[in-house]
Amino acid sequence: MDVAEFRRRGKEMVDYIADYLENIEQRPVYPDVEPGYLRNLIPSEAPVEPEDYNDIIKDVERVIMPGITHWHSPHFYAYFAAASSYPAMLADMLCGAIGCIGFSWAASPACTELETVMLDWLGKMLKLPECFIAGTSGRGGGVIQGTASEATLIALLAARCKVINRMRASNPQLSESEIFSKLVSYTSIYSHSSVERAALIGGVTMKKVSTDKNFAVRGETLKKMIEEDKAAGLIPFFVCATLGTTPSCAFDRITELGPICNEENIWMHVDAAYAGSAFICPEFRPLLNGIETHSLITHLWVRVCEEVKNRADLIGAFNVDPLYLKHENQESGLVTDYRHWQIPLGRRFRSLKMWFVFRTYGIQGLQTYIRKHVSLAKEFEKMVLADENFEICAEVIMGLVCFRLKGSNEINQKLLERITKLREIHLVPCQLEERFILRFAICARTTELRHIQRAWSHIKKLAYEILQESSHCLKG
After folding, report:
1. pLDDT value at position 299?
2. Could you say which cofactors this protein requires (predicted)?
């Protein structure tokens, strides 16, 4: 493919993407395929001779699209919102074209410096304490991680390194393995699975903390667990609190948890991978009060970012500096080498997406977008509350509604099975206090009230069919 064909094919691809997104709601949101479907549609080996590009594009519809769950469809209400906007896509194209691997300042100065500034922009949008801002002389700062899972793992590993160094400094005869075997971390019973997975990878014990009636971890419960573990000779070193849990969008009480962690010299990490974006709205910012933490994840509908109070805690844990990665400016106070902030060495020019999106939307535009999602969730909540056969199962604070048919877990499982089978909308469940719950998350950029109304009509219709069938069974 030469430059002339690239120009032509590139324009065609933009048109294809625009048409796909413009007409996405006409496609079934959930695929109707069986496992292994794709292997039967393509050859078992790569082609020896080049193939015609037109044939490749035709196969996108024949092979790929039948197996796609359309995350950006207005009929997609599963999980949480995924990053999608036209300026972000354009920035991704430019990122791919530049193709730099920005592991250090010298590898591409703009890649490093733009990320530092964008994370400062984000920190100021969230009104984080000044200690989180890098600026030109601050000790804090931010980094774009690949996923929230990586951000949590990085925080846990850094905390592990820090506590081991501290314990050995005060008690040199202790071996690293002795300390390691006694380390214990804590998180909510409703935290994301990636938090528990971080502990598995980090090789440390993680204990699940029970919650209050609002599914939030409280200070008193955590303090009791810490005291019991210390009395048993264990070393509490890490707490992952969540602002906006995946099952119900609950908010752990960081105003209570933070002082305990400070008192016990425990690293507190706040996972705000979903709800953190909403803190740029003044009405939601109080949910972030008490952010006396070492790190914060936030997902701003564009990327997963991690802000830290003291970047030395991360850099100290992951600093490996061979000669071939050194450069003459790395000792400068104005230079950050992000390879020390993450697990992989290589990294893409991801801050371009933030730069494009922040400038295209502006803070007001982003606030409007978030408020729209929240208002649509509130509208759906009203519809559920107006029907005596259904109940709301958790407070609706942002863009997630947890609801269910009144009755058994089995009847709710049957309802979800029918919803999934018909493929008109896509939901996923959660479990709260042993109850099977349906989650309705506002996800797509193009979701409007008419989509919510249509979804609710569909859910009600299927629910009444199931209730009627159950009634007949009882009479029989």
Report:
1. 38
2. pyridoxal 5'-phosphate
